[in-house]
Specification:
CATH superfamily of the largest domain: Aconitase, domain 3
CATH topology of the largest domain: Aconitase, domain 3
Largest sheet: 5 strands, parallel
Strand content: 5-15%
Structural class: alpha/beta
Number of strands: 10
Radius of gyration: 20 Å
Number of helices: 13
Number of domains: 3
Length: 358
């Protein structure tokens, strides 16, 4: 749900169906950190107060499924934000197209959405087969494979097989976000893992299985090089983690890697997470560990959404294929893509030492 706009002042009734608000601008925890105006933060607070009185649950995250908005398999939804849409369709097995602000607002008010696209069972079968001939196991591996898959199939529906390890929720989130970044994937199938594909035959709805598009060592190297093609200086000013917004497991891992370490005086580290998870991270000591090292745990938005980064940022590093793809174009800065460990090392040393592991 996002704000509807009109030249007239119209009183908006309560939402007819459960509705949540995705992220917008930075919240109060980012005040003074960027050129993002305080007036925009205050305006966002006012808007949230208005809509919450009309039945909107203010989650302010690109990962609403991490903080309570968890539709069941087969449930019809009206979601926007590409990484949320692909997760909803693929991992949860709910049904949504990639909607816009007008259609989601109308769906919230009416409880109706046009019955087309991903809502139709016949439109949910795979159209392409991707076969990974190199091992895919780490968080970085899943992001690079997703970037390859999205580029290969664009807006189609891939089924992915091959040398795949067992992904956790964060890896699936990362994989889907990457497919929706390099392409426009809204639904993928991992036979034996995602709910609508117990096997390959089910992924294709019993139809013919096409010849595979192969993800091999050469393709893996090309993806890595593409994601790192917008970085030239090894001096890093800014490290961004949590795109899509970090889970508690990810926050715990970041806190562990920063234990006993201190950021370089010329670097900034931001970890983006839902505000609801920030509260749990506070109680669990993760926030304390990150801030003690000099980092910041921020909520409600991200630099790409709010188009703001620490003043003077020239080079940033991230473990997110999505942010490595988008942020250089949005903010005109250089990007490095690597593992979480490499990003933390850059935050501590101020230098990029990443490289593609064999």
């Amino acid at each position: 749900m996002t704000n509807l706009d009109c030249d007239d002042d119209i009183e908006i009734p309560r939402m007819k169906v459960p509705t949540c608000q995705l992220e917008h601008g930075f919240g109060t925890d980012a005040a003074g950190l960027t050129g993002y105006p305080d007036s925009s933060i205050a305006m966002q607070d006012d808007a949230e107060a208005y809509f919450s009185e009309r039945g909107v649950t203010v989650l302010a995250t690109c990962t609403p499924y991490q903080v309570g908005n968890l539709p069941v398999r087969g449930e019809h939804c009206a979601w926007m934000e590409s990484s949320a849409v692909v997760y909803c369709n693929s991992v949860l097995g709910a049904r949504t197209n990639c909607e816009g602000s007008t259609s989601t607002g109308a769906a919230a008010l009416t409880g109706r959405i046009p019955y087309w696209g991903n809502h139709l069972p016949e439109n949910r079968s795979a159209t392409h087969l991707i076969r990974a001939d190199v091992e895919v196991g780490t968080f970085q591996d899943w992001g690079m494979l997703g970037y390859f898959v999205g580029d290969a199939v664009q807006e189609a529906r891939p089924a992915v097989v091959g040398a795949l390890g067992q992904p956790d929720a964060a890896a699936l989130k990362h994989f889907g976000a990457a497919t929706a970044t390099s392409g426009g994937v809204e639904l993928y199938h991992l036979p034996g893992i995602t709910p609508e594909a117990p096997d390959l035959a089910a992924a294709f709805g019993g139809g013919a299985v096409p010849e595979p598009i192969v993800y091999d060592e050469r393709a893996r190297r090309e993806v890595y090089d593409a994601l790192n093609s917008q970085g030239s200086s090894d001096d890093v000013d800014f490290i961004l983690l949590g795109c899509p917004h970090a889970s508690l497991d990810q926050l715990a891992e970041i806190a562990g890697l920063l234990d006993g370490r201190t950021l370089h005086p010329d670097t900034e580290l931001w970890v983006m997470t839902p505000r609801a998870l920030r509260s749990v991270a506070d109680r669990s000591g993760f926030t304390r560990a990150i801030t003690r090292a000099g980092g910041r745990v921020l909520t409600d938005s991200c630099p790409a959404m709010s188009r703001a980064a620490p003043p003077g940022t020239r080079v940033f590093a991230t473990d997110s294929a999505k942010q490595a793809h988008y942020l250089p174009a949005i903010l005109g800065i250089e990007a490095w893509f690597g593992t979480l460990g490499e990003c933390i090392d850059a935050a501590v040393t101020g230098r990029w030492h990443g490289g593609l592991a064999a």
